[in-house]
């Protein structure tokens, strides 16, 4: 009431329908709710198999030279000011040189825009492409932040399928059927979150040729770059930049095991300069100018982080990840009601399918994950949040003993909730 005792007709409220639509697509919101279901009185250690953050575990501790570089940048007093819109010049130059190691051409400092993590890069690209009538092609299953950011900006998105029977490769024919004259980009994720697949050189070439045929750019999410431990090596999509223009999204959060440092990049891996001619780079800079900056201290440290991190750190991290992936695969393979169509070869995840007919009293994957969190203190991401109902996304970026224990609890949960007449039946990988 106002001073005269009458009701005030407040004119504001949180009723933005675009925000509500975007929130419904947030994987973080789903996983956060699952953590809220955990019984805190349970004496067993929480097994966090729902999101890819290995940093809390000592076996995945960041490289000492990287930590020392950030500390040195902080105490130097040189990085207390606002950085430029694209990022500090030395930082952009270091990232350009780093990415160029794996490309058949050289990137320049001007090809790089630094972001506050890869998620910020996704936000920027979905905003830049949100012109009237445009649409983008997104993978299913995929990383839901693309859908959320597209929905928030009013950008239409269409889903193409990844094929589990083909190692989660892109359904090229499906892509061609989905695209029309308003399709501006296709998003690929390699190594893949959530499937754990790594695309071959030949398959990436097919994607690039398809993008050229359809006149669209490729947005290549490579936040898990070099996180490959199977038979196929990581190949950057930018290798095919001569075929079709590629915007590469990356960062240090996964390879360096420091997601909290929030340093990512957008790279124009486009030797023919098509993205500049189409003013995409200019639009990215404009958006960065009205958005947030990655911390100047971390930007200042990037040249030393890249230069001083020994290859032994990466090799050791991948050896542990390979061990964890093998534990995950074997434990899931031995769990009734779960089918694993493809052994993980990269990233920090694997997708597995639930046989819902096996259970009594569990109606879908969300119900499964909710009860699992409450009864076993194991958090796993339901596939529904990724466009795959009655599937699960499991992360193995966890200390191996805890991972093994968490998956044993998962198996016990499945057995406890099995229909009595089907408790002895198995669906194996």
UniProtKB/TrEMBL annotation:
Q: Which cofactor does it need?
A: pyridoxal 5'-phosphate
Q: Which reaction does it catalyse?
A: nicotianamine + 2-oxoglutarate = 3''-deamino-3''-oxonicotianamine + L-glutamate
Name of the top EC class for this enzyme: transferase
Query: What EC number is given for this enzyme?
Result: 2.6.1.80
Using the record's annotation, list all stretches that form the Aminotransferase class I/classII large domain: 59-410
Example GO molecular function? nicotianamine aminotransferase activity
For the keyword Cell division, the answer is no
- Keyword annotations from UniProtKB, A to Z: Pyridoxal phosphate
Spell out the InterPro entries in the cross-references.
Answer: Aminotransferase_I/II_large, PyrdxlP-dep_Trfase, PyrdxlP-dep_Trfase_major, PyrdxlP-dep_Trfase_small, TyrNic_aminoTrfase
Which residues are reported to carry the modification N6-(pyridoxal phosphate)lysine? 254
Q: Which Gene3D superfamilies match?
A: Aspartate Aminotransferase, domain 1, Type I PLP-dependent aspartate aminotransferase-like (Major domain)
Q: Which family does it belong to?
A: Belongs to the class-I pyridoxal-phosphate-dependent aminotransferase family.
Q: What is this protein called?
A: nicotianamine aminotransferase
| Originating species | Urochloa decumbens
